Task: inverse folding
DNA sequence: CCAAAAGTGTTATCGCTACACCCATGA
DNA sequence: TCATGGGTGTAGCGATAACACTTTTGG
């Protein structure tokens, strides 16, 4: 039944190359990281790049981004959202290519650190990025800005933490993203007052002798909060 | 010197049709409006649609959106921003087309109301829109949501008002966008406390015997406010 | 027993909300 | 003179920011 390539309509329009690129954020204890790859195709072969691919005839733009993520990291079910399009005529000397950038947030647990080996990718400290091809550096800057704005008003920061995390870990994440210290006591009060976290019995003792209680984000409780008309703000 | 269509690279990628569509908001005294057109090409010829066009080989995506706006309204220098991409495979039965939607805000002064005659377009009350083709209704909904969020944190509402406006007019605009009443006195205090408006000597007497003072948005003052670290919030 | 991080409570201040009254003017 | 919308002031409340002390425990 597929007739979407019918040549009857739009015959005078010029087809263009459309790509997706993914800005992949990770977080490790006290630093924000970015996953980069060495480009496999010319031009700019072997230079550092975001992962990307052309959008195929038979897949949606979002599906293309998800395919790219899966192909290069082996992961699915990762938080991902559209960042925006990059459509300057001369942005890619290889051809006229429009790219729709997406940013993704992923937990950087031990198993995922091995992405390096399997997929020939590398996690970079955010403040020690190598030169990137094309306008990828701009994409990264734009993604960071969006991340800063978005984490403040939406509960997406949890995507960067393991399922179970401590309040100090969560605070550290926000401190790294915002690049400024947050008051320990006020932060704890604020996040707990929203009642969107479940306190567990376990403690994490990796960063103190006393140990800190682990918590888990509860999406249902978050939905209840939204229904009550309460805003998520940090 | 243009070599961006060199066939050497990316030979295996499939080109696709890429379009831009514009969601054009207007504001008239006490109602939000949307500019729509009757589509000139098949499929769906003569049905109501957002304005749009295919992106050409030699123009950026943004330029394409600006061209569309100019072609159909005669206007340039209109506030416009990317909304996002619409990239489902089956979204357009005419062909596989990805659209990058943009929303625009324009002053709806007397001269622009004549857009109707000149360009065969029509302003619709926002709550009385006709059926729209494809996923254009979804685009409009998404644009409205973005407008609501954005006007709250960025000084873009002024784009919908004449250069000179009264505080009650400005408040009315926000009431229409947010769909809820705002306290007259608190609104005035808040907006004036930011010190981003210039008070003029003139009064507007069209809506009251006493008349209301006219103001003008001052972008330089807004920049100063931003530097002071003060947030724009309404 | 002590260093180091986790956890708790209190107070002052700022901003927002909710309100009531006066002002200017054309009809 | 009065109806109508414009303009101003204030008190109360809630959220946030600033800040000091106690708890736990491995070494």
Result:
């Amino acid at each position: 039944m597929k007739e979407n390539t019918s040549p009857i309509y739009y015959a005078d329009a010029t087809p263009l190359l459309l790509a997706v690129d993914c800005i992949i954020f990770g977080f490790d204890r006290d630093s924000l990281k970015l996953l980069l790859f060495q480009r496999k195709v010319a031009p700019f072969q072997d230079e550092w790049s975001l992962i990307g691919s052309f959008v195929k005839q038979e897949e949606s733009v979002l599906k293309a981004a998800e395919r790219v993520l899966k192909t290069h990291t082996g992961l699915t079910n990762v938080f991902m959202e559209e960042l925006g399009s990059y459509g300057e005529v001369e942005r890619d000397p290889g051809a006229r290519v429009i790219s729709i950038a997406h940013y993704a947030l992923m937990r950087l647990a031990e198993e995922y650190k091995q992405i390096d080996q399997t997929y020939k990718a590398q996690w970079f400290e955010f403040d020690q990025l190598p030169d990137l091809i094309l306008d990828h550096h701009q994409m990264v800057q734009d993604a960071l800005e969006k991340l800063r704005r978005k984490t403040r008003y939406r509960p997406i920061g949890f995507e960067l933490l393991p399922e179970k995390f401590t309040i100090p870990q969560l605070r550290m994440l926000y401190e790294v993203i915002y690049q400024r210290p947050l008051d320990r006591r006020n932060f704890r009060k604020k996040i707990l007052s929203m009642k969107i976290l479940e306190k567990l019995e376990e403690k994490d003792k990796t960063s103190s002798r006393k140990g800190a209680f682990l918590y888990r984000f509860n999406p249902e409780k978050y939905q209840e909060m939204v229904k009550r008309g309460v805003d998520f703000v940090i």
Notes: The domain at 161-227 of chain B is CATH 1.10.10.10 (Arc Repressor Mutant, subunit A). The beta strands of chain B are 17-28, 31-38, 48-49, 51-54, 79-86, 97-107, 121-125, 164-166, 197-204, 212-217. Residues 136-153 of chain B form the longest helix (18 residues).
